[in-house]
Design goal:
This is Phosphatase PAP2 family protein. It holds the Pfam family PAP2. With 214 residues, the chain is mainly alpha-helical. The protein is 79% helix and 0% strand. The chain has eight helices and no strands.
Length: 214
């Protein structure tokens, strides 16, 4: 697919995310469904499950995922793979920055009966954003040789991500739509940053090639 054709899907993805965000935060259409799901989850609350989901939630916290993302970027930089390092740094900073702006701009309140200490606003979920970015980066850059190991890698990472999403709903730190919004933002941000970084590299490659011929 040419770069011109790649812009269309990215733009549509952003438009879809913006429309979804407006429906969630500026209208009451989704709130009833969110509360129903929260009510269902409340029936499964127990002290032992709360401890487990708190621990799972910590593994997907913004500080943990951002820190791991920077370590991965440092790994690439040490290996002099600057394009990959720049991509990882850019996508984590860009996504977290957009998420922070949206939280402050939309100011969606969190669920009332929280089972964990949380601060700030609810939409989108920073835990989900960072966790999905980490999963995407690992799956994109590390491919086990054996197919069964690749399948195991996908299952483990997808399972962990799913548990992080579930933990945020179980702990009533987020509504389901906050989780969906966080995942959507992470996906479209990665898509956009990868497109931008590749475009930057291609331009400089063509310039260097042209200069070497003159």
């Amino acid at each position: 697919m040419s770069r011109a054709k790649e812009i269309g899907p990215i733009a549509l993805n952003w438009c879809g995310f913006i429309i979804f965000s407006m429906l969630v935060c500026l209208t009451q259409y989704t709130l009833a469904y969110d509360r129903q799901i929260t009510g269902v989850v409340q029936h499964f609350v127990s002290p032992s499950r709360t401890i487990i989901f708190n621990l799972i939630s910590i593994t997907g916290s913004p500080m943990v995922t951002l820190g791991l993302g920077m370590l991965i970027a440092l790994f690439f930089i040490i290996r002099e793979d600057l394009q990959k390092g720049a991509l990882v740094i850019s996508v984590f900073l860009f996504t977290n920055g957009i998420g922070w702006v949206l939280k402050d701009l939309l100011r969606r309140p969190r669920p009332l009966a929280q089972l964990t200490q949380t601060q700030g606003f609810s939409y989108p979920s920073s835990h989900v954003m960072g966790s999905l970015l980490l999963v995407i980066v690992v799956l994109h850059f590390w491919h086990p040789v054996l197919v069964r190991n690749r399948v195991l890698q996908i299952v483990i990472l997808s399972g962990w991500f799913g548990l992080v999403c579930l933990s945020r709903i179980y702990l009533q730190a987020h509504f389901l739509t906050d989780v969906i919004g966080g995942a959507w933002l992470a996906a479209v941000s990665y898509q956009s940053v990868e497109f931008a970084v590749q475009g930057f590299v291609d331009r400089h490659t063509h310039q260097d090639s042209a200069e070497s011929k003159t």
